[in-house]
Amino acid sequence: MLAASAATSELVSAPGVDKATRIPVAVPTMPRAADLGPYLERIDAAGWYSNFGPLVLEFEDRLAARFDRGATVVTVANGTLALTLALEALGLPRGSFCALPSWTFVATAHAVRMAGLVPWFVDVQTKDGELTPAGLLAALPEAPGPVAAAMPVAVMGRPMSPAAWRAFQDATGVKVIIDAAAGFDAAASAEVPVMVSLHATKTLGVGEGGFIASEDPEFSTRLRAMTNFAFMGDRVSRHVATNAKLSEYSAAVGLAALDQWPTTRNRYAAAARRLRLALADVKAVTFQEGWGTNWISSTCVVRLPAGAADPVEASLSASGVDTRRWWGNGCHVAPAFTDCPASALPVTEALAASSLGLPFFSDLGGTQIQKIASSLRSALAAL
Predict the structure, then answer these.
(1) How many CA atoms lie within 13 A of 121 on its CB side?
(2) What is the model's pTM?
(3) CB within 8 A of 270, min separation 6: which ones?
(4) Do the Cβ atoms of 37 and 351 come closer than 8 Å?
């Protein structure tokens, strides 16, 4: 496990708080050098470093085995590129609209714009912050123009239903790609294409990377070509594409991480259970349904009383407990997207003011958990 991370490096400790005892919001869990040894030796022996080498193909096969119904997996250099190229592989009219929740990380919206589509921000449901097929179907009559695609988001890695989105796609003709960036543990089917991030901050990471799982082999073939200059087994570049392949070295990290996955998952689940237990009597704190019991992720985002995120965040920081507004105030307020159309977003705005990411990682200790719990109680009591 890394001692520090890019996820926490920009945080600044509050005055008077000992940096040594400050609890970071995230610490990645990654394979160690010794775990990579056998895979690095295979790379040395083969002399194959990129261009869909044996480790990448093995990694993709092992990832695909986690999905139902014969899905195939295409790895990509990072999750944002995976979403961008997946949209481009669908061959959608440039300038058409892609519906997506504003309640997501900005990478989702950046991918839409990079693919030549226009983001249309749609509100989510109150219960779990998710854009549902029924919610989007109800919003479609108010669309600002032709909607060619939709990109629903698995909220902080929460399970969602690709089958329901396939039914929506069949009924409307709107192509769907699911952004399940944090959903490695929960993603198990790919009736529509599903993207999972392999960033170091995720439960299974390779540093930078991502993959798309799909049950459509023709789509997967097009996507593979999009990551490799539009070559298809030869040296003919058939259309505009890019270079977004995963290297053999990244695959080595991924294979070592998969070897350790059962243990890694248990560590995350145990830490989540301890944190939930420590806060079980705090009725003002609501965890995501099933988090830490039915599914796990590398973040812990809780719902607080309406409008409480700002004061609680400030109080915890003063106590030496780092937090994170992982999705900020929604994509629609970011300068990069303020020119994009949006439906009314009251639920998104309420979630932004009441959701907070608490410190969470696989080695979160008992003393740290008690400090998080006591600091959170004090912060809530002061409201």
Answers:
(1) 26
(2) 0.94
(3) none
(4) no
